[in-house]
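Q: Sequence in, structure out?
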Amino acid sequence: MTHARTGALLGVAAALLMTAPTAAAEPTPTTPHTEPVADAVLAIENGSLELDAESEPLAVPAATERVSLTWNTTAIEPGTVFGDTVKLRTSVADASTPAALDAAAHDEPVVVPVASSGTVEVDAPPPGEHLLRVEATAHTLDGSPLTITHDYSILVAEEARPAIAAPPQPLLEAPVTAAQAPAQPEPQPRLAAAAQPSPTATGRVTLDHGHVDALAPRLLADGLHIQVKDGTATGTTTWREPADVEFAITAAARTELPAQPVLSFLGEAGKQIFLLPQTQQGDLLWTGWSTEELRPAEVSGPMTWTLTAVDGPGAFGLFTTGSFGAPSVIFNSTDGLPDNHSVALGTHAHANWAFAEPGRYRLTFAVAAPGAGGGTLTDTETYTFVVGDGTTGTNQQQQQQQPGTTDRQAGTPTSLASTGPAAVPATAGLALGLIVTGAAVLVLTRRRPAQEIS
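A: Exactly. Output:
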């Protein structure tokens, strides 16, 4: 790997940020395979971007609305491409006119991280034979573009017509047996159809570590609901109402506030704050947000996420870190609320959740999205964060009663999150953590008021 000069890197970063896409795909935590199995396996070979894919046509069952294409970047090591990310664009055209792919409308590009795997969704085309083009792009560390394109053949099945009842058989004539009935071809799905909404769990829980999308709106039978997408149990997703969840932030989240002017609303440099980091750390909550459950057929534009109120002992802030470690603040509870942030459909993202003081916080969030049939879909929910071990006896008791939680000793700050093999020591401070984590995450910007993402 070559080391580009600082000036060149800054120029590349500025150019890339100006064209940064609005959608991002977060990986499903996986263990790297020796031989990755996916519809699109990406790698860097001899300085070029390569895409290995299946040659057989992909079968899509009838009446499928959304289909998923799996991707795998475990062969691309961190530090190989700029920002440790690859962009994926998709487009679909009729198989009878392959040239139409060149003029087809592309879906919004999706940013996927290296050394990971996941899925990207596309709208299912009508029944028949079609071509799905996947274009992958990345940049070398000195800014040179890398591009690879692959066309998939996909077969969308026709919906079965209703069976016509056979006329009554004469009494003396043997009835038609199952073995004599015409055999129906079994579908061979390669692409996954969108599932029906999962039920909402009941009962109060305390979450103190693992992956959770705290704000994940979805449309249910009675309208738009802000819900918590709880993935803290490995391999299981549980949907919960925010009122049933208490987010516990233990002393393991304590860290020093760096000398960053944009974060001064949290306190003076060197102050101990509580931080849920942007990248995953095993003993802390990895808290994000998602609009992946909202479909273009239901919602016609981006979602506006609003922080309307904060009730707690100190300041609250939500911010991201860019490729060079510079914080970008989304929510700041001290400069006047409400604060608005626009989130595109299909987004799954994470950021740093910072609390200036220990204690109990109640954060009130509202979401609004334009309905596909007109009008505006809205919901408002209040979230409870208990910051610091031993803050309340109630919280301590709940942690002891919840399965899967572990006791922690208060008072000693532990390591910050790291994208490398070893965690960054807390004594290095949040400033180093911002630089390390920034290379592999989505760059977001704070918008107030909310703006449409084109």
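DSSP finds four helices and 28 strands in the chain.
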